[in-house]
Every structure is written in structure tokens, then in C-alpha cells.
Amino acid sequence: SALLAAAAITRSYGNTPALRGVDFALAEGEIVAVTGPSGCGKSTLLHCLAGILRADAGTITYRDQDIGLWSEAARSRLRRTEFGVLFQFGQLVPELTAVENVALPLLLAGSGRREAREAALGWLDRLGVADLAEQRPGAMSGGQQQRCAVARALVTEPRVLFADEPTGALDALTGEQVLGEIVRTARDQGTAVVLVTHEPRVSAYADREVALRDGVVDPTGLGLGVTA
Ligand code: ADP
Ligand code: ADP
Fold first, then answer.
1. Where does the record place the ABC transporter domain (predicted)?
2. What is the pLDDT of residue 121?
3. pLDDT averaged over consecutive 10-residue blocks of the chain (228 residues)?
4. What is the per-residue pLDDT for 223?
5. Is residue 192 a contact partner of residue 159, using CB atoms and an 8 Å limit?
6. How far is CA 228 from the centre of its chain?
7. Which residues contact 19 (CB under 8 A, 6 or more apart)?
8. Which ligand has the minimum distance to the alpha carbon of residue 36?
């Protein structure tokens, strides 16, 4: 069965329907791109799948458990231990250096200082930004900051990475490079990825594409031409 699945989920903001009955499934280690025009519900779907937002109806199961029935505390623990989250920008703590930022999730999870620092340095190295370890975000380019954010999202070796337009604030070339690194490092350790993206060449990165339109999965499917 799927690692993570949504069945017939709906979600509105006041009178504005954002999701109107969406089914979704993610297999272990699978990389799925969620695409579609602005306002079609991509962010809402990602937030529901990640347990950040509650769906109004329908079920979301993670490893066969209905996480909609869980308390906020249990959902928050799930996000800290099994999930990684990556947004467009603004995720690094400006007062902390790169290595301190990347070590933070491990420290919060109870790792020792030395162990957390070693792991953080290893991840900065994997993302090609080891030389920036002692820099603060304000001294880095957008691409460098986002590479640090990728390291921070993956340092806990999550089972699922949720990435909401992670390259949306970068120029086209840097965006493509960073997206390639997200996919490469996630694949390396078998992390599944739900990737909301506007990158045109999504077929180069994702195993499968789910195209949304007006809060439902577009039945014609292949919005940008990914073949499963
Ligand atoms: P996308 O990520 O595809 O741009 P969203 O999930 O952000 O789509 O939004 C889906 C719909 O829900 C849009 O009509 C949007 O305006 C609306 N929406 C999203 N977030 C909110 C919110 N916090 N309050 C009110 N409406 C919202
Ligand atoms: P995205 O780039 O994911 O589409 P948006 O720029 O649409 O994000 O939305 C950014 C933030 O504003 C999100 O937290 C979203 O929930 C909220 N938002 C989006 N649409 C609306 C809306 N119509 N009314 C209020 N908040 C909204």
C-alpha cells in the first residue's frame, strides 16, 4: 500500500473551495510533482498531506494510519520525525550560521551538539556549500541559502519531503540546479518527495505528475508531459 495517501479530501477557506475531492498516493521513495495554475489548490494539498492543515472531509493516511484522527501534538511529532518541509524562501534563522541552521532540527530531536554539527557539515558538503558553514544567511546568495535549506530539510533523513515551490524565488538556471540537487539527495537516501513546482521541465525530475485544476485532479493528467 501507499506510504502516504489522500482519499476524497476537501478543504475550503470560508466560502472559497480550495480542494474539492482529491485522491493522491505516494509510494516509498517516489518523487511526485504537483502542478497546475496558480490558485488550483497545490499549496493546500501539500499542507494537508503534511499534516499542517486539516482537511474538511476525506482521509489522509500515513503508513496506514489516519492522521486526521491524531492530535495536534502527534501530528507535530510526525512532522518533526518523519517529514521534512521546504518552502520558497525565508526558512533559515538569520542570526544562526549555516551549520547552526542545519543542525537545528537534530538538536530539537535530541541529538548531541557534536553529532548534530558533524551531520550538518556532512549535509552542507553534499549540497556543495560546505565552505559557507560559518556564514549567516544574509551573506549568501538565494541559491546558497536554498541549498542550506535543503540540507536542513533532509538532515533528519525524513521519510517524506514536502517541497512547496522550493525554487520559485531563484533565477531559472539556479532553480534548475537546486531542484536537481533536491531530487538527487532525496533519491540517494530513499526519501519520497511531494514537489509543488512551476519548473517547466518537471519530467526531468519527477517519477510522476499530478496536475490539479480548480481543486480537483485534472483527469487528462499529464499537464506538463511527465510519463509515469
Ligand atoms: P496554489 O498553491 O495552487 O496557488 P492554493 O492552495 O494556495 O493554490 O489556493 C487554492 C485556493 O484557496 C485559491 O483560491 C486561494 O486564493 C485560496 N486560499 C488559499 N489560502 C487561503 C487562505 N489562507 N485564506 C483564504 N483563501 C485561501
Ligand atoms: P503559493 O505561492 O503557494 O500559491 P500564495 O502566494 O497563493 O502561495 O499564498 C501565500 C500565502 O497566502 C499562503 O499562506 C496562503 O494560504 C495565503 N493565501 C493565498 N490565497 C489567499 C487568499 N485568497 N486569502 C487569504 N490568504 C491567502
1. 4-228
2. 98
3. 96 97 97 95 97 96 95 93 88 96 94 97 96 98 96 96 94 92 94 91 89 90 49
4. 53
5. yes
6. 20
7. 9, 10, 11, 41, 44, 45, 48, 55, 215, 216
8. 1
Task: Let me know: does 48 contact 13? Beta carbons within 8 Å.
Answer: no
Between CA 148 and CA 188 the distance in angstroms is 17
- Comparing CA positions, the residue from 15, 4, 93 lying closest to residue 46 is 4
What distance, in Å, lies between the first and last C-alpha atoms of the chain?
18
CB-ligand 2 contact for 165 (6 Å cutoff): yes
Residue nearest to atom 15 of ligand 2 (CA): 43
Query: Which residue's C-alpha comes closest to atom 11 of ligand 2?
Result: 43
Q: What is the pTM of this model?
A: 0.89
CA of 65 to the centre of ligand 1 (A): 27
What is residue 137's predicted lDDT score, i.e. its pLDDT? 97
Nine-digit cell string for 179: 531542484
CB 151 within 8 A of CB 128: no
| Confidence at residue 228, expressed as pLDDT on a 0 to 100 scale | 39
Q: How far is the CA of 43 from the centre of ligand 2 (A)?
A: 8
For the record, the C-alpha cell of 9 comes out as 479530501
